[in-house]
Design brief:
17% strand; Rossmann fold; 2 domains; alpha/beta; 9 strands; 4-stranded parallel β-sheet
Length: 267
């Protein structure tokens, strides 16, 4: 059995965990068990982390969660935010556990399906940070552009018809004007909406939560079947355990909020 944690780096708020659990149930392999987790309110009652200051506060929680997940024996962890918040930080303390996140996972998948991809995001505010992440992971020349619809994370759920129209118009601009050959949704309103864009535009459309889950699952399978574990040399070096113990802030207190387990099945 492969065991994956999908970490939503916000408080248990507005049914987020249930949505991700539904996504996991529909897309995981039968032999994969997925734990969908979020943070306790003690970290802050965040419903989103679209501001860098919000990211700064939850980063410690992500690091602590990665360490706790590794100790629980998870094969892989997916950090559920398209900013890929604390991805490198979490990897440092994750031992042999694979750690991935939506932006890097989506770009890897898009690059395997097409030469150029466009990314639809909520607000212009997000673009600078997300573009840096795309460039850092080596996809500068594959990026057709970012297409913002000027909706914050919570606004995606206010009027689904309006949101759908804005997302579809952005996809049309990316494909028909800038010649994107695949689309990545940096944020979406419902499970399965990416299929509607695929049907309309005739190109692959990647849901970032599915991408993060499947990339985590793939990394776990590679580790199990091929023995390929994350590197811990040079820039990937983990901090010394004795220093972590001396600091004392990594393992104490409440780390996870509610947890939904999507169980593995026999077939």
């Amino acid at each position: 059995m492969v065991k994956i944690m999908y970490l939503s780096p916000v408080a248990h708020y507005g049914g987020h965990d249930e949505i991700f659990a539904e996504m996991a149930a529909e897309n995981k392999l039968p032999g994969t068990e997925v734990h969908v987790c979020s943070f306790p309110d003690s970290i802050g009652k965040f419903s989103h982390i679209e501001y860098r200051s919000y990211e700064g506060i939850v980063t410690a929680g992500i690091i602590r969660a990665a360490r706790a997940a590794a100790r629980e024996g998870f094969d892989a962890l997916a950090i559920g935010c398209f900013y890929d918040t604390a991805l490198h930080d979490a990897r440092e303390v994750s031992g042999d556990m694979v750690v991935t996140a939506p932006c890097v996972a989506s770009c890897e998948i898009a690059a395997s399906l097409s030469n150029r991809f466009g990314i639809i995001v909520g607000r212009r505010k997000w673009v600078n940070q997300m573009q840096s992440t795309v460039h850092e992971h080596g996809h500068r020349d594959r990026l057709a552009g970012f297409y913002h619809v000027e909706l914050g994370v919570t606004e995606f759920q206010e009027d689904h018809n309006r949101t759908a129209t804005l997302l579809m118009n952005a996809a049309r601009q990316a494909v028909e004007e800038d010649y994107a050959e695949s689309i990545i949704l940096g944020c979406t309103m419902e499970v399965g909406f990416h299929k509607k864009i695929e049907d309309q535009m005739g190109v692959p459309c990647i849901d970032p939560s599915i991408a993060a889950l499947k990339r985590a699952e793939y990394g776990a399978l590679l580790k199990r079947d091929c023995g390929w574990k994350p590197s811990r040399k040079w820039s990937c070096e983990s901090p010394p355990e004795e220093e972590i113990a001396e600091i004392g802030a990594f393992d104490s207190g409440e780390i996870f909020g509610p947890r939904i387990v999507v169980e593995a099945s026999a077939t």
